[in-house]
Design goal:
Among the domains are: 91 residues, Pdz3 Domain (Roll); 165 residues, 2-enoyl-CoA Hydratase, Chain A, domain 1, CATH 3.90.226.10; 34 residues, no CATH class. It has 13 helices and 23 strands. By secondary structure, the protein is of the alpha+beta class. About 4% of the residues have low confidence. It has a 6-stranded mixed beta sheet, covered by helices on one side. Strands 3, 16, 17, 21 and 22 form a 5-stranded antiparallel beta sheet that branches.
Length: 465
């Protein structure tokens, strides 16, 4: 191949790489307008927390901050921070795929956790002898801890007061997103009044092996059913798993207490959560007291592609005879349909567990997992132990995927508003509180956590020693 032929090929390759990494200012502005245009069409009440005027000011400031071509990494950070102001975790734009891959593949993880109290950041669970539990963080790479709170703009969260919890729990990730650290950092801490500065080597991200569900005994009387996700579950395998463990519980009369661990369950498909109820002797439940669904072009397109295949087109008009079909496909664009829900009845399984049931929760208990918690509370079948769940009494769910045309950033927008039973003006932005408060993040490992959990229940007089 001649040099004259080879050089243009190199230029095409470099140009392609550049075009995949950067977008022009006009392309960035188009993406911003596209997202908020879609959001206004899809969301039932986009400005429920931040007024339209204030949001338009933020959008204008965002556009002004893009002065020239911008990397997709940087653009994703800027845009996601503004979108997060909406206050609906189901409505968001994700950080760029490239930046997320970099965090998970390179040495970017801090060798310590973080606890936040007010404006003070403490070292938690250090993985190096250079730090001690409870050290007060003064700075990292000369970035003062006073600046750390601004990282909450990347936290996708429904309940504003829970943002510090998520920032502390995932501090390593959010710190990387803002500062793109790698390999090592310099950290200054205050240890009992003494200022100490040291260099730390960063770790590669270690993906913890975590199945979707598990079952084990803590002791002779207490067992744990741990469900980490209700998403992408094989229904047949899941049902077989539940049948098996509840047969074991039914056969073992010494096991009198069951803890359903949903502390790290971010949701998925609610029907898989509801499948649990007949196994724990719940015969009546209610998920929500009300829905409001917004019909629009994007909703019609999404459900049309998802549920109506080409060979079903002749039967498309029959969707009108279904209540949800009328809402999704035939209602006027922009219309909002309110649906009141009723209590539902179930038949308990023959091997249903009739002992004491506790549900372990945290701020990370969200979406379908939160649905289970609210319905479990309504059934009065047992007690909630842990922390306030991450989903409020009133909020937004069921989102339509959105991909931006130029940057190809992905996100989504909610099209359904819900109200849990008991929602009112005073609690609508709050999550359901536990019957027994228990902070699972205070423990170094799960063995200590479950020991602490059983002690908490026992000390509350709910378990026989």
């Amino acid at each position: 191949m001649s040099k004259l032929t080879f050089l243009p090929l190199i230029w095409i390759f470099i140009n392609n790489v550049f075009s995949q990494t950067y977008i022009t200012r006009n392309e960035a502005l188009e993406d911003i307008d596209y997202f908020f245009r879609q959001a206004e069409q899809i969301h039932p009440d986009l400005y429920f927390k931040v007024s339209k005027t204030d949001m338009q000011t933020k959008i204008l400031d965002l556009k002004k901050s893009v002065k020239d071509s911008i990397s997709i990494d940087e653009f994703s950070k800027k845009l996601s921070a503004v979108v997060n102001l909406i206050g609906d975790a189901h409505t968001n734009i994700g950080i760029s795929k490239h930046l997320r891959k970099k965090y998970y593949r390179e040495k970017t993880r801090l060798p310590f956790g973080v606890k936040i109290s007010g404006n003070t950041f403490y070292v938690s669970k250090p993985e190096t002898e250079k730090l001690k539990e409870g050290d007060i963080i003064v700075s990292v790479n000369n970035i003062k801890s006073n600046d750390f709170n601004k990282l909450t703009r990347y936290v996708v969260c429904d309940i504003e007061s829970q943002k510090p919890k998520f920032l502390g729990k995932y501090f390593s990730y959010y710190f990387f997103i803002e500062y793109e650290i790698s390999d090592s950092i310099n950290i200054t801490v205050n240890r009992n009044g003494k200022i100490i500065t040291t260099q730390l080597t960063l770790n590669a991200y270690r993906k913890k092996p975590r199945g979707k569900y598990d079952f084990f005994r803590i002791n002779d009387t207490v067992a744990v059913l741990k469900i980490n996700s209700f998403a992408n579950i094989n229904k047949k395998h899941y049902k077989s798993f539940l049948d098996s463990i509840f047969n074991r519980l039914s056969d073992n009369k010494n096991l009198t207490t069951l803890v359903i661990d949903l502390k790290n369950n971010g949701g998925g498909t609610t029907s898989y959560a509801v499948m649990l109820f007949p196994y724990i002797n719940v015969t009546t439940y209610r998920l929500h007291q009300k829905y409001e669904i917004k019909t629009g072009k994007a909703v019609k397109k999404y459900f049309g592609k998802r549920y109506i295949k080409w060979f079903m087109y002749p039967f498309y008009p029959f969707a009108y005879f279904s209540r949800m079909g009328r809402i999704y496909f035939f209602k006027k664009n922009g219309s909002i349909t309110s649906i009141a829900t009723k209590e539902r009845r179930l038949k308990a399984k023959s091997n249903a567990f009739k002992g004491k049931v506790y549900v372990l929760t945290s701020a990370g208990t969200y979406s379908a997992a939160a649905d289970f918690v609210y319905a479990f509370s309504y059934s009065k079948r047992g007690k909630i132990i842990g922390d306030t769940v991450g989903q409020p009494y009133t909020g937004y769910i069921d989102r339509i995927p959105v991909t931006l045309p130029n940057s190809k950033l992905r996100g989504g927008v909610s099209f359904k508003r819900y109200e849990y039973v008991g929602a009112n003006e005073n609690n609508k932005h709050q999550g359901i509180s536990p019957d027994l408060y228990f902070d699972a993040d205070n423990y170094k490992n799960e063995a200590e956590l479950y020991d602490g959990l059983t002690s908490k229940i026992r000390n509350a007089g709910r378990l026989t020693p």
